[in-house]
Structure formats: C-alpha cells, structure tokens
Amino acid sequence: MTLKGPPGTQDWLPERMAIRRAVVDRATAIFGAAGYAELAVPLFEETGLFERTSGESSEVVTKEMYSFRDRGDRAISLRPELTAGIVRAYLQHGLHKRPQPVRVFTCGTAYRYNRPQRGRLREFVQFDAEAIGSHDAAVDAELIALQMAWLEAIGMTGLELEVNSIDTPAARRLYVADLRDYLDRHAAELSDDVLRLRDTNPLRAFDTKHERSQAILADAPKITDRLSTEAAAHFAEVRAFLDARGVSFRVEPTLVRGLDYYTHTAWEIKWPALGAQSTVSGGGRYDGFAEVLGGPPTPGVGFAAGIDRIVLALEDQGIAGALVGPVAIDVFVQITEPAARPALHALLDRLRLAGVSAEADLAGRSDKGQWKHAERVGARIVVQCGPSDWAAATVTVRDRERGGSEAVALTRLVDDIVERIRG
RNA sequence: GUGGGCGUAGCUCAGCUGGUAGAGCACCGGGUUGUGGUCCCGGCGGUCGCGGGUUCGAGUCCCGUCGCUCACCCCA
Question: Cβ of A309 < 7 Å from strand B?
C-alpha cells in the first residue's frame, strides 16, 4: 500500500455510504416536513469568523483549526463547525426580513485537527439544523423533539437526552466567579487538570475523570441553582414543551457546550455504548452570536449531529443493514454472442428509460461468469442472447422468481419486461 | 499535544525457540450441479508499513520512523 488518505480521514465506500445516505435522508424528511429548508454554506470561511464567534480561548479555535493563507493572502480556515457560516449567511443576506424564525438545515463536512480515535475524525460529517430569529422556548423544544424523532426513526435505542441552561454570558460570569472561589477553597485536593481548567474553562471542570476531584465538585455550586429569573423562566418553558410531547430527558446541571457563544438552553444526546466519544448530537441556544459578528441582536438555536458517530452506533446495534433495503436490479442481460453487444447495450438504455433497472456484463466475463454475476446482483429476470438468439432476432427471457423461460422478439423486449415487472 | 496496544495478500488472520511466506473469504477461469446463488479443481494476488542495526541468514530480535487503534484531552 503506497497511497493512503491523510490521518483522521475516511473513505465512505458504497456499503457504508448507503447507510449514511439513509440516515441523512431520514433527517431531511423529518425536518423538511416540519418546515425546515435545506441550504449550503462554504466549507471554508475567513478565519476571523470562527475566532470571533467560538471564543479565542476555546480549544477548537486555538489549536484545532485547519488555517492557511490563500493566494490573495486572506486568512482562511476550514470550518470546524457549521453554525458560524449559517449565521453569517443569515446576516449577509438580510434574512431577518423573512418570516422569523428562519429555519434551515444542512449536511456537510467540518474539520478539526485533533488526535483521531473511535468516533472522532479530522474530517467529519454533521447534520445541522438552525432556527434563527426567535426567543421562543418552543423553538428549542421543537429542535430537540425533531432530533429525537429522527434518531428513533432510524432505529436507535438507548439514547440519553441531557438538557441544561447555561444562562446568559453575563449571568454565567457571576456563576463562574463563584465556581472559581469554590475551586480555590479546595485547590489542595484537586487534580492538576482541574486546576488548569479553573483558569481556562471552569465549567468543564465537572467533566474530570479524577475521582477525588469529582467528589469535591459534587458539592460545588451548580448553575441550575442560580439561574437569572429570565433564564429560569425560559428553561422551565422548554421543559414544559418537552414534557407535553412526551420527550423524556434528564436535567444535567454540569452540561456545557464547547463553543463560547451559547446561552440558555444546551443539550446533548448520548449513546453511551459508543465509547469515549459518545455524544451523538449536541445543540444549544446562541442569542449573542449575531452581535459578536457585528449584526443586530438576533436570537438563535441549533444543533449539530455527528453522522459518523450515528453510523457507528447503528453498526454496533446491528441495525444498519435494515436501513438500506436489499440491493437488487430488475434485469441482467447475458450476452454470449459478441456481435449482439452494441444492440443489446443500446436496449439497456431503453429499459432504464422505462424505469427498469438493467445491467449487462462490462468486464468480458464468460457465459457462466455472466450468469453468476446476474445472481450476485440479484437480478430477477435474466435476458439471454446467444448466437442462435441473435440470428433469429430474439432473446430468451428467464424469470428467476417465477421460473420458466420464453423466447421474445428483440423488438418486443422492452414491453415484455415492463409487463413482467409491473405485473 | 500525552500515554497503551497493533502493523503479513483487497478482507479476516496463521506463521513455534530467527532459515528465506500460508489459509479462509473475495475476484477470474474450468468442471459439476434438477433452469444452475451448491460442490470440486485451478488461477490472479504480498518490496511481510518504512528505514537502519544485530546475524552466515530476520516476517520472526534491537533502534528509529510512519500509520492504525484505544484512552487522556477536546468535542459532533
């Protein structure tokens, strides 16, 4: 093997691609039916877009971006997530003039330079939905509910939905100050990584694997206990909408989002058996986002789902195959008279035009090899054309499902096949 | 960025204490089989990740390197 894709990339060969396609198609159908419209935004943006919106302190921006200068000396980065580009497009094209909220979805790749492992690649695929332009808690709940409906529709079971409110940045700062005080008081017993997080990202301290630190953090102040009245009211509304829908969830007071721009509602859907990277989908509200970009105050909510992880989970559950129906074609044309090839290949086009899936040998296979191939591709009908058929301007049609064979004039073949398939 | 495990045919793997490369599946061909997704035979296919070293001789030992993988970290 001399050629290999770069680390952290993967090829989607046809079998897995069919699963991915089915997963995304299901999302498209569900979100489409709810009124979300598809859009697409660039794979790369000016680096500043991500720097301003993700927060300079976040790992994603500081060391995980694929950044470079283009030939015009512009600072460019491959998108590490999809939300920023969508919000940028919303502002750039004045979508605030349309009925609010503007609800859109997209599916595409994003890029993050980190060490690959199961469920974490450098190029990964996300399905992303955003609803921009409304504060209404009903929007948050709708996104969560659609997401759960989608994941359940593709057969996932054992999902865990966690929700939390992380309030507004201003309120969060007050809480973080309290949390820092608490950590300082217990500094002697905390692990180094927790102390490091105390400075960089205190909310993340709760995620530590260190047992002693976990015990201490169990008694630390929780953001849920000191939400501003506005945030508490919004959060209560979201929960009420979810309850009314029968969506079961758990309030997780230590749940945080990775990017800085999030406010109020935050949620994550996990499939624990996936391993260390068990978050299959995560989202939240980002009411301050547009202002950071220099736009007018614009609320928004959205989520991103990791398609790679979802496909992994489906494969683990052994239900990936069920999503992709059996692959079979209607007709295989077995040609054992070389002179007949051009005419019969032309006939393939006519069959296909008539809505019949049809194939013939493309690799110089022997008579027997062609038959075996017909079986392999699951052809229901095999049309044979040998020297004597060709001389008589007929073909032999064998119906593998019903049995039996019949000579059919070449001129009548398309009609004959269509009758068999429809009948 | 930090650790652990692993790297032999397209895939899954075997190769004992170093002696010069194998199986199954897949693919192609032939035979057989009640119109035939069986069975049998044959063929194709490998610089044993790469580079050094030890040795008469290394897939097998040592060092380095690259890659994969799991975990940390981070997050979808």
Answer: yes
Do A363 and A398 share a structural domain? Answer: yes
Q: Is A365 left (phi over 0), alpha (psi -120 to 50) or beta?
A: beta
**CA/C1' separation A195–B45 (Å):** 57
Task: Tell me the HSE value of A327 on the side-chain side, using a 13 A CA sphere.
Answer: 10
User: What mean pLDDT, rounded, does chain A reach?
Assistant: 90
Mean predicted confidence (pLDDT) in A1-6:
66
Residue A331: strand pairing partners: A358, A381
- Residue A404: pLDDT band (50, 70, 90) is confident
Nearest to A121 by CA among A237, A223, A252, A11: A11
Choose the final residue of a domain: A322, A352, A373: A322
For strand B, give the nucleotides within 7 A of a protein CB.
1-3, 10, 27-32, 35-37, 47, 49, 67-76
Per-residue flag: A198 CB under 7 A of strand B: no
Per-residue pLDDT band for A1 (boundaries 50, 70, 90) equals very low
Residue A246, domain CATH: 3.30.930.10
- Cis check: omega of the bond before A101, within 30 degrees of 0: yes
Full domain range(s) for residue A279: 14-167+227-322
As a rounded value in angstroms, the CA-to-C1' distance for A1 and B8 is 13
Domains of chain A: total: 2
Nearest residue to A11 via CA among A23, A2, A20: A20
Amino acid making up residue A223: I
- Does this model's pTM top 0.90? My answer is yes
Strand B-contacting residues in A 390-419, CB cut-off 7 angstroms: 398, 400, 403-405
Q: Which pLDDT score, from 0 to 100, does residue A206 have?
A: 87
Question: With a 7 Å cutoff on the CB, does A276 touch strand B?
Answer: yes
Supply the ipTM of this predicted assembly: 0.83
Please indicate, yes or no, whether residues A110 and A248 belong to a single structural domain of this protein.
Answer: yes
- The integer distance in angstroms from the CA atom of A1 to the C1' atom of B19 is 27
Q: Is the pLDDT score of A258 beyond 70?
A: no
